[in-house]
Amino acid sequence: MFETQNYEVTKGINYEYVYMKRNDDSKPTLLFLHGFPSSFYCWRHQIDYFSKQGYGCLALNLMGYGKTYSPLDEKEYRIKSMVQHLISLLDHLNLTKVIVLGHDMGVRLATRFVLYHPERTLGLILFNVGYRPPAKFDLEQAMQLTKKAFGYELNGYWEFFNSDDAAEIFENNADVAIDILYPSDPTLWKTDLGPLGAIRKWMTKKKRTNRASYMTDKDYEIARQVITERVQSKLNWYKSAIINIDLDDEKDLDPTIKRPVLYIAGIKDYICVPQVFANQKQHIPNLETIELDTSHWTMEEKPEDVNQAVEKWIEKIV
């Protein structure tokens, strides 16, 4: 679908990416950062639309994905290093400033990119996951707090992702995993993904359900590839967050985001629940929030609504 390129951002570390140069100088370039278990393919509708409108589009396969560098050591997944990788790629492509779009785990990298290098950004768009300022992450505490607030743990699945056998279970049960990650009934995330122990039970009992209607055969093939190739590398994004790998790097960072931010929430996302991020506005002086009738894969579920909202917002800030 997209012609991919590869670039060595620093010695021994390469990134696979798709780049479409802008053909209208008044339009900015958009930098797309995906989450788990996605790839740059999750932005296909946005790349297709915005490149046709004259915008530049740069979408990467992040570390652990596709043909990008995929180390097995979770200590290599430092966000500060990855931010430098992005800068190196932007320099290579002669891109001075971009609008950064992040989804899911890609939000962590997107927000830190803007904190470390506000001068390279025009704005920031967050999908489903809102801004979490630098702070120590305590998984146990997060699970207790969310269970108290919502009646179930929102990130109980992190405990499974952090376990030694998770990658093997994913690789051997790809269809079972795709069913629960892309279900037609998003409320299943309240019972079979979020709660502690739920996804292990789902996977090992090989439970099945109907998949989301927007998922085409091609989408399924790509999702299957992502879930059967080098899964441990992908899970390292979670492992590194659990061990607070970024704590030292971020301890002196100013938590205020000095660029305009658009947060697009999914009101049927029962893991990245919009209420969890209600306080982000205290660190974002220029924040606009839009809620869409979607579950977690907002830009794939409602691409036209997303593209319209994003374009309208870009026209306001640029």
From TrEMBL:
Gene3D superfamilies: alpha/beta hydrolase
Single GO term (MF): epoxide hydrolase activity
Source organism: Adineta steineri
Cross-referenced Pfam families: Abhydrolase_1
Domain AB hydrolase-1: 28-303
Keywords for the protein's UniProt record, in alphabetical order: Hydrolase
Origin: domain of life: Eukaryota
Family classification: Belongs to the AB hydrolase superfamily. Epoxide hydrolase family.
Protein name, UniProt field: AB hydrolase-1 domain-containing protein
